[in-house]
Design brief:
InterPro entries: Ig-like_fold
Distance between the termini: 11 Å
Strand order of the largest sheet: 1-2-7-4-5
Number of strands: 8
Radius of gyration: 15 Å
CATH topology: Immunoglobulin-like
Strand content: 35-45%
CATH architecture: Sandwich
Number of helices: 0
Largest sheet: 5 strands, antiparallel
Shape: elongated
Length: 111
């Protein structure tokens, strides 16, 4: 009995890195969509997402629901092999100072 989930590209079969946007320059915006797939052999009764940071220009959309910072969103359960679409967007202000940037998304699966 295993409970596991992993990130996949939109085809649902190609493993992918998480929600990394790569380089986004000041004045630009970028989005990345990944599928969170249940790769275990047991159903997950719910998958909970919380956008930990309240940062200007950051949005996270889970299965059509835009997350509000600090508010937990419970997605429906995932049977083995099922996926959930997650889109992360960052609009960098034109006056932003170049450098590394991180926003934290907490994901918790209930069994």
């Amino acid at each position: 009995m295993t409970y596991r989930a992993a990130w996949y590209l939109s085809d649902g079969t190609t493993p992918a890195p998480g929600l990394d946007l790569g380089e986004v320059k000041p004045g630009q915006s970028a989005s990345v969509t990944r599928l969170l797939k249940n790769i275990g052999d047991q159903a997950l009764s719910a998958v909970q997402f919380t956008l930990a940071d309240d940062l200007a220009g950051v949005t996270v959309d889970v299965a059509g629901e835009t997350l509000a910072p600090g508010v937990m969103y419970a997605a429906p359960g995932l049977a083995p092999g099922q996926t959930l679409s997650v889109t992360y967007t960052r609009a960098v202000p034109a006056d932003a100072v170049p450098g590394p940037f991180s926003a934290f998304l907490t994901i918790r699966a209930l069994t």
